[in-house]
Design brief:
Blueprint (H helix, E strand, L loop, with lengths): L1 E6 L2 H10 L7 E6 L8 E2 L7 H10 L2 E6 L2 H6 L1 H7 L4 E2 L3 H8 L1 H11 L6 E4 L2 H8 L6 E5 L8 E4 L2 H14 L9 E5 L5 E8 L4 E3 L4 E2 L2 E3 L3 E4 L4 E4 L6 H21 L6 E10 L2 E8 L7 H4 L7 H10 L13 E9 L23 E4 L2 E4 L2 E4 L3 E9 L2 H12 L7 E2 L6 H7 L2
Parallel strand pairs: 1-2, 1-4, 2-3, 4-5
Antiparallel strand pairs: 6-9, 7-8, 7-9, 10-11, 10-16, 12-15, 13-14, 15-18, 16-17, 18-22, 18-23, 19-22, 20-21
Helix pairs in contact: 7-8
Bound molecules: adenosine monophosphate and glycine (GLY).
Length: 423
Amino acid sequence: MNIIVIGSGGREHAIIKKLAENPEITKIYALPGNGGMKEAECVPVSAKDLDGIVEFAKTHDIGFAVVAPDDPLVLGCVDRLEEADIPCFGPRANAAIIEGSKVFSKNLMKKYGIPTAAYEVFDDPAAARAYLDTASFPIVIKADGLALGKGVLICADRSEADAALSEIMETKIFGESGNHVVIEEFLTGPEVSVLAFTDGETVVPMISSMDHKRAGDGDTGLNTGGMGTVAPNPYYTEEVAERCMNEIFLPTIRAMNAEGRTFKGCLYFGLMITKDGPKVIEYNCRFGDPETQVVLPLLETDLFTIMKATRAGTLSSLDIRWKKGAACCVILASAGYPKKYESGFPLILPEQPKHGAQIFVAGAKLKDGVLVTGGGRVVGVTAVAPTLAEAVKNAYEAAEDVKFENRTMRHDIGARALACKGE
Ligand code: AMP
Ligand code: GLY
Protein backbone atom coordinates (compact mmCIF):
# COMPACT_ATOMS: atom_id res chain seq x y z
CA MET A 1 0.00 0.00 0.00
CA ASN A 2 1.12 3.56 -0.71
CA ILE A 3 0.61 5.98 2.16
CA ILE A 4 1.21 9.68 2.75
CA VAL A 5 2.44 11.37 5.90
CA ILE A 6 1.71 15.11 6.10
CA GLY A 7 4.33 17.23 7.88
CA SER A 8 8.07 17.85 7.87
CA GLY A 9 9.61 17.64 11.34
CA GLY A 10 11.26 15.19 13.71
CA ARG A 11 7.88 13.93 14.86
CA GLU A 12 6.96 13.02 11.29
CA HIS A 13 10.32 11.28 10.83
CA ALA A 14 9.63 9.19 13.95
CA ILE A 15 6.16 8.28 12.63
CA ILE A 16 7.58 7.39 9.20
CA LYS A 17 10.35 5.17 10.63
CA LYS A 18 7.81 3.30 12.74
CA LEU A 19 5.34 2.86 9.87
CA ALA A 20 8.16 1.64 7.62
CA GLU A 21 8.42 -1.47 9.87
CA ASN A 22 5.05 -2.69 8.50
CA PRO A 23 5.53 -4.92 5.40
CA GLU A 24 2.04 -4.02 4.11
CA ILE A 25 3.32 -0.49 3.43
CA THR A 26 5.33 -0.47 0.21
CA LYS A 27 5.81 3.24 -0.29
CA ILE A 28 5.69 6.28 2.01
CA TYR A 29 5.41 9.79 0.61
CA ALA A 30 6.13 12.71 2.95
CA LEU A 31 4.36 15.99 2.11
CA PRO A 32 6.56 17.98 2.25
CA GLY A 33 8.93 15.96 4.49
CA ASN A 34 12.57 16.98 4.75
CA GLY A 35 15.81 15.98 3.05
CA GLY A 36 16.84 13.74 5.96
CA MET A 37 13.88 11.36 5.70
CA LYS A 38 15.48 8.45 3.87
CA GLU A 39 12.52 6.11 4.43
CA ALA A 40 10.13 8.31 2.44
CA GLU A 41 9.92 10.09 -0.88
CA CYS A 42 9.54 13.79 -0.14
CA VAL A 43 7.07 15.70 -2.29
CA PRO A 44 7.13 19.51 -2.33
CA VAL A 45 3.48 20.04 -1.30
CA SER A 46 2.99 22.24 1.76
CA ALA A 47 1.20 20.74 4.77
CA LYS A 48 -1.33 23.60 4.55
CA ASP A 49 -2.04 23.15 0.82
CA LEU A 50 -5.16 20.99 1.20
CA ASP A 51 -6.00 21.10 -2.53
CA GLY A 52 -2.47 19.99 -3.38
CA ILE A 53 -2.57 17.16 -0.79
CA VAL A 54 -5.91 15.80 -2.01
CA GLU A 55 -4.81 16.04 -5.66
CA PHE A 56 -1.57 14.17 -4.87
CA ALA A 57 -3.42 11.47 -2.93
CA LYS A 58 -5.95 10.93 -5.72
CA THR A 59 -3.28 10.57 -8.39
CA HIS A 60 -0.82 8.31 -6.50
CA ASP A 61 -3.01 5.41 -5.45
CA ILE A 62 -2.83 6.36 -1.76
CA GLY A 63 -4.47 3.86 0.60
CA PHE A 64 -3.99 5.72 3.88
CA ALA A 65 -2.99 9.19 5.11
CA VAL A 66 -1.46 10.29 8.40
CA VAL A 67 -2.01 13.98 9.11
CA ALA A 68 0.48 14.91 11.83
CA PRO A 69 0.67 18.72 12.33
CA ASP A 70 -1.94 20.97 13.94
CA ASP A 71 -2.46 23.40 11.04
CA PRO A 72 -3.77 20.95 8.42
CA LEU A 73 -5.88 19.15 11.04
CA VAL A 74 -7.53 22.39 12.18
CA LEU A 75 -7.98 23.45 8.53
CA GLY A 76 -9.86 20.21 7.76
CA CYS A 77 -7.29 18.10 5.91
CA VAL A 78 -8.84 14.87 7.21
CA ASP A 79 -12.34 15.96 6.12
CA ARG A 80 -11.05 16.75 2.63
CA LEU A 81 -9.15 13.45 2.26
CA GLU A 82 -12.13 11.45 3.53
CA GLU A 83 -14.38 13.17 0.98
CA ALA A 84 -11.96 11.75 -1.59
CA ASP A 85 -12.37 8.28 0.02
CA ILE A 86 -8.89 8.19 1.55
CA PRO A 87 -8.87 6.77 5.09
CA CYS A 88 -6.91 8.90 7.53
CA PHE A 89 -5.29 8.92 10.94
CA GLY A 90 -6.23 12.16 12.67
CA PRO A 91 -9.32 14.06 13.81
CA ARG A 92 -11.72 15.94 11.58
CA ALA A 93 -11.78 19.75 11.85
CA ASN A 94 -14.80 19.77 14.19
CA ALA A 95 -12.76 17.72 16.70
CA ALA A 96 -9.35 19.32 16.01
CA ILE A 97 -10.88 22.51 17.43
CA ILE A 98 -9.94 21.08 20.84
CA GLU A 99 -6.46 22.45 20.01
CA GLY A 100 -7.51 25.09 17.47
CA SER A 101 -9.47 27.16 19.99
CA LYS A 102 -8.46 27.54 23.62
CA VAL A 103 -11.83 29.21 24.30
CA PHE A 104 -13.53 26.05 22.99
CA SER A 105 -11.38 23.70 25.07
CA LYS A 106 -11.70 25.72 28.28
CA ASN A 107 -15.48 25.95 27.90
CA LEU A 108 -15.63 22.20 27.18
CA MET A 109 -13.74 21.45 30.39
CA LYS A 110 -15.95 23.79 32.42
CA LYS A 111 -19.17 22.32 30.98
CA TYR A 112 -18.12 18.70 31.66
CA GLY A 113 -16.29 19.21 34.97
CA ILE A 114 -12.82 18.30 33.68
CA PRO A 115 -10.15 19.70 36.04
CA THR A 116 -8.27 22.71 34.64
CA ALA A 117 -7.11 26.17 35.74
CA ALA A 118 -9.90 28.68 36.57
CA TYR A 119 -10.31 31.20 33.73
CA GLU A 120 -12.25 33.98 32.03
CA VAL A 121 -12.60 34.73 28.31
CA PHE A 122 -12.40 38.24 26.81
CA ASP A 123 -12.86 39.73 23.37
CA ASP A 124 -12.50 43.33 24.54
CA PRO A 125 -9.12 44.60 25.83
CA ALA A 126 -10.80 47.12 28.17
CA ALA A 127 -12.85 44.39 29.86
CA ALA A 128 -9.73 42.22 30.12
CA ARG A 129 -7.85 45.08 31.80
CA ALA A 130 -10.73 45.70 34.23
CA TYR A 131 -10.54 42.00 35.17
CA LEU A 132 -6.80 42.31 35.82
CA ASP A 133 -7.59 45.01 38.44
CA THR A 134 -9.01 42.27 40.66
CA ALA A 135 -6.63 39.44 39.69
CA SER A 136 -3.66 38.04 41.59
CA PHE A 137 -0.28 37.41 39.97
CA PRO A 138 1.41 35.62 38.32
CA ILE A 139 -1.37 35.09 35.78
CA VAL A 140 -1.48 33.32 32.41
CA ILE A 141 -2.75 34.96 29.20
CA LYS A 142 -3.43 32.75 26.17
CA ALA A 143 -4.36 33.70 22.62
CA ASP A 144 -7.41 31.73 21.52
CA GLY A 145 -6.17 30.25 18.25
CA LEU A 146 -3.04 28.50 16.96
CA ALA A 147 0.08 30.61 17.49
CA LEU A 148 2.99 28.34 16.56
CA GLY A 149 3.15 27.19 20.18
CA LYS A 150 3.94 30.74 21.34
CA GLY A 151 0.48 31.95 22.30
CA VAL A 152 0.86 31.43 26.07
CA LEU A 153 2.31 34.29 28.13
CA ILE A 154 3.01 33.92 31.84
CA CYS A 155 2.83 37.38 33.38
CA ALA A 156 4.60 38.00 36.69
CA ASP A 157 2.83 41.31 37.40
CA ARG A 158 0.27 43.81 36.16
CA SER A 159 2.62 45.63 33.79
CA GLU A 160 3.62 42.38 32.05
CA ALA A 161 -0.04 41.43 31.76
CA ASP A 162 -0.94 44.84 30.25
CA ALA A 163 1.90 44.46 27.75
CA ALA A 164 0.78 40.92 26.86
CA LEU A 165 -2.82 42.03 26.33
CA SER A 166 -1.86 44.87 24.03
CA GLU A 167 0.50 42.65 22.01
CA ILE A 168 -2.08 39.89 21.59
CA MET A 169 -5.32 41.90 21.27
CA GLU A 170 -4.21 45.23 19.80
CA THR A 171 -0.88 44.76 17.95
CA LYS A 172 -2.16 41.26 17.09
CA ILE A 173 1.26 39.56 17.11
CA PHE A 174 -0.56 36.24 16.58
CA GLY A 175 -3.02 37.69 14.05
CA GLU A 176 -6.68 36.65 14.29
CA SER A 177 -5.70 34.11 16.99
CA GLY A 178 -5.69 37.09 19.37
CA ASN A 179 -9.30 38.17 18.78
CA HIS A 180 -10.20 36.36 21.99
CA VAL A 181 -7.98 35.68 24.98
CA VAL A 182 -8.20 33.31 27.90
CA ILE A 183 -6.91 34.71 31.20
CA GLU A 184 -6.29 31.91 33.64
CA GLU A 185 -5.01 30.99 37.05
CA PHE A 186 -1.30 30.16 37.32
CA LEU A 187 -0.87 26.55 38.40
CA THR A 188 2.24 24.91 39.82
CA GLY A 189 3.49 21.34 39.84
CA PRO A 190 5.38 18.95 37.59
CA GLU A 191 4.21 18.74 33.97
CA VAL A 192 3.46 15.47 32.20
CA SER A 193 2.63 14.87 28.54
CA VAL A 194 0.33 11.95 27.79
CA LEU A 195 -0.46 11.11 24.18
CA ALA A 196 -3.41 8.79 23.75
CA PHE A 197 -4.77 6.77 20.85
CA THR A 198 -8.52 7.00 20.59
CA ASP A 199 -11.20 5.81 18.19
CA GLY A 200 -13.83 8.00 19.84
CA GLU A 201 -14.90 5.31 22.33
CA THR A 202 -11.79 3.61 23.67
CA VAL A 203 -8.82 5.64 24.85
CA VAL A 204 -5.40 4.01 25.13
CA PRO A 205 -2.81 6.25 26.79
CA MET A 206 0.72 5.83 25.48
CA ILE A 207 3.77 5.87 27.72
CA SER A 208 3.96 9.21 29.55
CA SER A 209 6.72 11.67 28.73
CA MET A 210 8.37 14.90 29.84
CA ASP A 211 9.23 17.77 27.51
CA HIS A 212 11.98 20.35 28.14
CA LYS A 213 10.58 23.52 26.60
CA ARG A 214 13.06 26.24 27.55
CA ALA A 215 16.13 26.85 25.40
CA GLY A 216 18.69 26.83 28.23
CA ASP A 217 19.98 24.42 30.86
CA GLY A 218 18.08 24.48 34.15
CA ASP A 219 14.87 25.56 32.35
CA THR A 220 16.15 29.04 31.58
CA GLY A 221 15.80 31.17 28.46
CA LEU A 222 13.07 31.36 25.86
CA ASN A 223 10.33 28.86 25.20
CA THR A 224 11.06 26.59 22.25
CA GLY A 225 9.21 23.85 20.41
CA GLY A 226 10.98 21.43 22.81
CA MET A 227 14.70 20.76 23.37
CA GLY A 228 14.41 17.16 24.49
CA THR A 229 12.18 14.56 26.08
CA VAL A 230 12.27 11.52 28.30
CA ALA A 231 9.78 8.68 28.73
CA PRO A 232 8.30 7.42 30.94
CA ASN A 233 7.72 10.48 33.14
CA PRO A 234 8.42 9.53 36.80
CA TYR A 235 5.82 11.99 38.09
CA TYR A 236 3.13 9.98 36.29
CA THR A 237 2.62 7.34 38.97
CA GLU A 238 0.03 4.58 38.72
CA GLU A 239 -2.20 6.51 41.08
CA VAL A 240 -1.96 9.67 38.96
CA ALA A 241 -2.58 7.60 35.81
CA GLU A 242 -5.75 6.16 37.26
CA ARG A 243 -7.06 9.59 38.27
CA CYS A 244 -6.22 10.95 34.80
CA MET A 245 -8.13 8.13 33.10
CA ASN A 246 -11.24 8.64 35.25
CA GLU A 247 -11.20 12.42 35.70
CA ILE A 248 -9.69 13.60 32.41
CA PHE A 249 -9.21 11.11 29.54
CA LEU A 250 -12.57 9.32 29.48
CA PRO A 251 -14.57 12.46 30.38
CA THR A 252 -12.88 14.33 27.51
CA ILE A 253 -13.67 11.64 24.93
CA ARG A 254 -17.28 11.44 26.16
CA ALA A 255 -17.61 15.24 26.19
CA MET A 256 -16.45 15.43 22.57
CA ASN A 257 -19.01 12.75 21.61
CA ALA A 258 -21.77 14.58 23.48
CA GLU A 259 -20.90 17.72 21.50
CA GLY A 260 -21.14 15.80 18.20
CA ARG A 261 -17.37 16.15 17.73
CA THR A 262 -16.09 12.57 17.98
CA PHE A 263 -12.29 12.62 18.20
CA LYS A 264 -10.32 9.93 16.37
CA GLY A 265 -6.52 9.89 16.24
CA CYS A 266 -3.96 10.96 18.81
CA LEU A 267 -5.15 13.26 21.57
CA TYR A 268 -2.37 14.93 23.54
CA PHE A 269 -3.04 15.81 27.17
CA GLY A 270 -0.67 18.44 28.58
CA LEU A 271 -1.10 17.91 32.32
CA MET A 272 0.09 19.55 35.49
CA ILE A 273 0.16 17.44 38.65
CA THR A 274 -0.96 20.04 41.19
CA LYS A 275 -1.44 19.53 44.92
CA ASP A 276 -5.17 19.23 44.16
CA GLY A 277 -4.58 16.49 41.60
CA PRO A 278 -3.93 16.39 37.85
CA LYS A 279 -5.26 19.29 35.76
CA VAL A 280 -5.30 19.93 32.02
CA ILE A 281 -2.94 22.70 30.87
CA GLU A 282 -3.67 22.13 27.19
CA TYR A 283 -5.02 19.69 24.65
CA ASN A 284 -3.32 19.08 21.33
CA CYS A 285 -5.14 17.29 18.52
CA ARG A 286 -2.00 15.42 17.42
CA PHE A 287 1.24 13.73 18.41
CA GLY A 288 3.61 16.01 20.34
CA ASP A 289 7.01 17.03 19.05
CA PRO A 290 9.48 15.93 20.49
CA GLU A 291 7.36 13.62 22.70
CA THR A 292 6.75 11.30 19.74
CA GLN A 293 10.50 10.80 19.37
CA VAL A 294 10.63 9.03 22.77
CA VAL A 295 7.17 7.44 22.83
CA LEU A 296 7.15 5.62 19.48
CA PRO A 297 10.58 3.99 19.95
CA LEU A 298 9.07 2.33 23.06
CA LEU A 299 6.00 1.06 21.19
CA GLU A 300 6.09 -2.68 20.57
CA THR A 301 2.76 -3.10 18.75
CA ASP A 302 2.62 -2.25 15.05
CA LEU A 303 1.76 1.44 14.63
CA PHE A 304 -0.10 1.06 11.31
CA THR A 305 -2.42 -1.55 12.86
CA ILE A 306 -3.24 0.87 15.67
CA MET A 307 -3.79 3.78 13.30
CA LYS A 308 -6.21 1.76 11.18
CA ALA A 309 -8.07 0.70 14.35
CA THR A 310 -8.60 4.33 15.42
CA ARG A 311 -10.36 4.89 12.10
CA ALA A 312 -12.35 1.64 12.19
CA GLY A 313 -13.44 2.04 15.82
CA THR A 314 -11.80 -1.26 16.83
CA LEU A 315 -9.17 -0.03 19.26
CA SER A 316 -10.68 -2.03 22.16
CA SER A 317 -9.82 -5.29 20.35
CA LEU A 318 -6.07 -4.50 20.26
CA ASP A 319 -3.55 -5.37 22.93
CA ILE A 320 -1.16 -2.43 22.70
CA ARG A 321 2.22 -3.26 24.21
CA TRP A 322 5.20 -1.19 25.28
CA LYS A 323 8.85 -2.07 25.65
CA LYS A 324 10.29 -2.12 29.14
CA GLY A 325 12.89 0.53 29.88
CA ALA A 326 13.20 4.21 29.12
CA ALA A 327 13.95 6.58 26.27
CA CYS A 328 15.69 9.95 26.01
CA CYS A 329 15.69 12.31 23.03
CA VAL A 330 18.23 15.13 22.81
CA ILE A 331 17.48 17.86 20.28
CA LEU A 332 20.42 19.36 18.41
CA ALA A 333 19.51 22.88 17.31
CA SER A 334 21.04 25.76 15.37
CA ALA A 335 22.68 28.34 17.68
CA GLY A 336 20.30 31.27 18.15
CA TYR A 337 17.12 29.17 18.04
CA PRO A 338 14.30 29.99 18.90
CA LYS A 339 15.31 33.44 17.65
CA LYS A 340 17.40 34.14 14.56
CA TYR A 341 19.80 31.41 13.45
CA GLU A 342 21.85 30.54 10.40
CA SER A 343 21.37 27.37 8.43
CA GLY A 344 22.64 25.74 5.23
CA PHE A 345 25.64 24.04 6.90
CA PRO A 346 26.54 20.45 5.90
CA LEU A 347 24.88 17.95 8.26
CA ILE A 348 26.89 14.80 9.00
CA LEU A 349 24.92 11.86 10.42
CA PRO A 350 26.58 8.63 11.61
CA GLU A 351 25.83 5.53 9.48
CA GLN A 352 25.56 3.36 12.61
CA PRO A 353 24.64 5.56 15.58
CA LYS A 354 26.22 4.49 18.89
CA HIS A 355 24.13 2.37 21.26
CA GLY A 356 21.57 1.65 18.51
CA ALA A 357 20.27 5.21 18.87
CA GLN A 358 17.77 6.53 16.32
CA ILE A 359 18.23 9.80 14.50
CA PHE A 360 15.14 11.81 13.62
CA VAL A 361 15.80 14.65 11.24
CA ALA A 362 13.71 17.75 11.95
CA GLY A 363 15.20 20.58 9.91
CA ALA A 364 17.38 19.70 6.92
CA LYS A 365 17.33 19.84 3.15
CA LEU A 366 19.22 18.41 0.25
CA LYS A 367 21.25 21.03 -1.60
CA ASP A 368 22.97 19.71 -4.75
CA GLY A 369 22.74 16.22 -3.26
CA VAL A 370 24.32 17.26 0.06
CA LEU A 371 22.32 17.24 3.30
CA VAL A 372 22.45 20.68 4.96
CA THR A 373 20.83 22.17 8.05
CA GLY A 374 17.51 23.87 7.39
CA GLY A 375 15.76 24.76 10.60
CA GLY A 376 16.00 25.77 14.24
CA ARG A 377 15.66 22.24 15.52
CA VAL A 378 17.88 20.14 13.26
CA VAL A 379 18.01 16.60 14.63
CA GLY A 380 16.68 14.57 17.56
CA VAL A 381 18.79 11.69 18.84
CA THR A 382 16.85 9.05 20.79
CA ALA A 383 18.33 6.21 22.84
CA VAL A 384 16.33 3.42 24.48
CA ALA A 385 17.88 1.57 27.44
CA PRO A 386 16.85 -0.50 30.46
CA THR A 387 17.12 2.53 32.76
CA LEU A 388 16.56 6.25 32.25
CA ALA A 389 20.11 7.01 33.41
CA GLU A 390 21.53 4.79 30.64
CA ALA A 391 19.13 6.18 28.04
CA VAL A 392 20.26 9.74 28.85
CA LYS A 393 23.95 8.84 28.76
CA ASN A 394 23.57 6.90 25.51
CA ALA A 395 21.56 9.63 23.77
CA TYR A 396 24.24 12.21 24.58
CA GLU A 397 27.05 9.90 23.44
CA ALA A 398 25.28 9.12 20.17
CA ALA A 399 24.57 12.84 19.66
CA GLU A 400 28.34 13.54 19.63
CA ASP A 401 28.56 11.90 16.20
CA VAL A 402 26.00 14.23 14.62
CA LYS A 403 28.02 17.12 13.28
CA PHE A 404 27.15 20.55 11.90
CA GLU A 405 28.35 24.10 12.33
CA ASN A 406 26.61 26.26 14.98
CA ARG A 407 25.25 23.20 16.75
CA THR A 408 23.72 23.74 20.19
CA MET A 409 21.77 21.66 22.70
CA ARG A 410 20.69 21.46 26.32
CA HIS A 411 23.00 19.44 28.55
CA ASP A 412 20.46 18.50 31.20
CA ILE A 413 17.74 16.57 29.37
CA GLY A 414 16.42 14.01 31.84
CA ALA A 415 18.11 15.58 34.89
CA ARG A 416 14.82 16.50 36.59
CA ALA A 417 13.32 13.08 35.90
CA LEU A 418 16.42 11.36 37.30
CA ALA A 419 16.33 13.56 40.41
CA CYS A 420 12.67 12.62 40.92
CA LYS A 421 13.57 8.95 40.71
CA GLY A 422 16.51 9.48 43.06
CA GLU A 423 18.96 8.13 40.39
P1 AMP B 1 1.32 25.63 25.90
O1 AMP B 1 1.81 26.51 24.79
O2 AMP B 1 -0.15 25.62 26.08
O3 AMP B 1 2.01 24.30 25.88
O4 AMP B 1 1.86 26.29 27.24
C1 AMP B 1 3.23 26.49 27.38
C2 AMP B 1 3.61 26.31 28.80
O5 AMP B 1 3.04 27.34 29.60
C3 AMP B 1 3.11 25.02 29.44
O6 AMP B 1 3.92 23.93 29.15
C4 AMP B 1 3.19 25.40 30.91
O7 AMP B 1 4.52 25.26 31.36
C5 AMP B 1 2.84 26.87 30.91
N1 AMP B 1 1.45 27.09 31.30
C6 AMP B 1 0.36 27.10 30.52
N2 AMP B 1 -0.76 27.30 31.25
C7 AMP B 1 -0.35 27.43 32.53
C8 AMP B 1 -1.03 27.66 33.78
N3 AMP B 1 -2.35 27.85 33.85
N4 AMP B 1 -0.28 27.73 34.89
C9 AMP B 1 1.06 27.57 34.85
N5 AMP B 1 1.76 27.36 33.71
C10 AMP B 1 1.06 27.29 32.56
N1 GLY C 1 5.95 19.36 22.70
C1 GLY C 1 4.77 20.14 22.75
C2 GLY C 1 3.93 20.08 21.55
O1 GLY C 1 4.09 19.27 20.67
O2 GLY C 1 3.03 20.91 21.45
